[in-house]
Amino acid sequence: MGWRIIPIIRKEFIHIIRDPRTLVVMFVMPLMQLILLGYAATSDVRNVPLAVHDQSRTPESRRLVEAFVQSGQFTVVRLAGSEQELAGLVDNGSVRAGLIIPPTYAADLIGGRGAQVAFVLDGSDPSVAASALSSARLIGQVEATNIQQQALARRGAVVALAPPMEVRTRVWYNPDMASAVFMVPALIGLILQLQATLLTASAIVRERERGTIEQLIVTPIRPLELILGKILPYALVALLITIEILIIGTLWFGVPIKGNLLLLLGISCLFLLSSLSIGLLISTVAQTQQEAFLLTFLTLLPSIFLSGFIYPIAALPKVLQFLSGVVPLSYFLVVVRGIVIKGVGVPSLTTQIGALLLFGAVLIVLASTRFRKRLD
User: Roughly what angle, to the nearest 10 degrees, separates helices 350-375 and 261-285?
Assistant: First the structure.
């Protein structure tokens, strides 16, 4: 078996080397995807356009507005002269939020009567609205507490009331809670699947379109040997792409790899085996290379939505949670995030490693079986 697949491997390497443009695209496309998606696929809410209607016009009200700006989550783009003007700005999309400060804001706050402000928010985008709303509440509470303490201090009052319970928080693995730390490792898995599947999706189809499939049929090579011979060259190329993505993710986005790099590369090879096998399985079904590319992107959609790349699997309906169990990317995302972000080892990843091994073996067998049927 070993000797018979060598000509197939050599033939695929010749195809790769003789097409330098495709080879360049293989390595440039993942770089562009990582950079673009690394900045675009973020859950951080920053610089929300804010309109302010300040009826108090006191140092206290200006300090509240400044607190919103200094948080980094809001940018004051308009000073509204009335509530109707502010409402119009929210309606036409000029701003996403509005802050209305009443005339008695400073007096009520300093007098300890409990000042109230209105915060109007465009809720058409729930993710942005939820983050902006929680930030606005926290900013208001902190600023009100600071002003009241300063007012009491000017009066000479000393307040030393201990809270009934103190919660001391500690954020592990991602203290700054930057979305890049969470998203970049996931992008590594998504880009690898896309590239690996695309690399092999047209393998058998290309042989059929060029009329060389008959040459493979008359050779004594078995379907499984042919599948392995076609996978190995592209596996090497995909492994080099993996190293490229890891380097760019670390240097460009500042996401350090806390775990064992060799372990990550080894498990990545298992994941690549599954992705390459999916591409070959597609190539045995598709009649043209265009159809193979369309089927590749069709298989990519479940991977995006059911793997935990965007939405937590636990938040999905039970049926979709079950379906996520047959998506190889869902297991690899646990691996890559665990090794890169947490620095975990094999004992914490045995389930995922076993699943990727199973997927790789099953998909290779399916691809070779499907190819045998195509020969009959």
Answer: 30
Q: Residue 166 — very low, low, confident or very high, per pLDDT cuts 50/70/90?
A: very low
The CA distance from 257 to 126, in Å, is: 32
Name 29's Cβ contacts closer than 8 Å, sequence gap at least 6: 195
Which tokens hold the place of 34? 């990582």
Q: Rounded to whole angstroms, what are the CA distances from 34 to 23, 238, 303?
A: 18, 15, 17
- CA distance linking residue 11 with residue 21, whole number of Å: 18
Q: Is the dihedral of CA 318, 322, 327, 331 positive or negative?
A: positive
pLDDT higher than threshold 60 for residue 251: yes
Determine whether 160 is exposed, middle or buried from the number of CB atoms within 10 Å of its CB (0-12, 13-18, 19+). exposed
Percentage of the chain with pLDDT > 90?
9
Return contacts of 250-256, CB within 8 angstroms, 24+ apart: 252/34, 252/35, 252/38, 253/38, 253/180, 253/184, 254/180, 255/180, 255/181, 255/184, 255/185, 255/340, 256/340
Give, in order, the Cα–Cα distances in Å from 356 to each of 229, 230, 350.
Answer: 20, 20, 10
Bridge partners of 217?
none
Lookup: tokens for 308: 């935990």
Higher pLDDT, 52 or 280: 52
* Gap between the Cα atoms of 300 and 318, Å rounded: 21
The length of the chain in residues reads: 376
Token code pair at residue 126: 């729930």
Per-residue tokens: 233: 């060259």
Q: Taking Cα atoms as reference points, which of 16, 28, 125, 105 lies closest to residue 60?
A: 105
CB atoms within 10 A of CB 320: 14
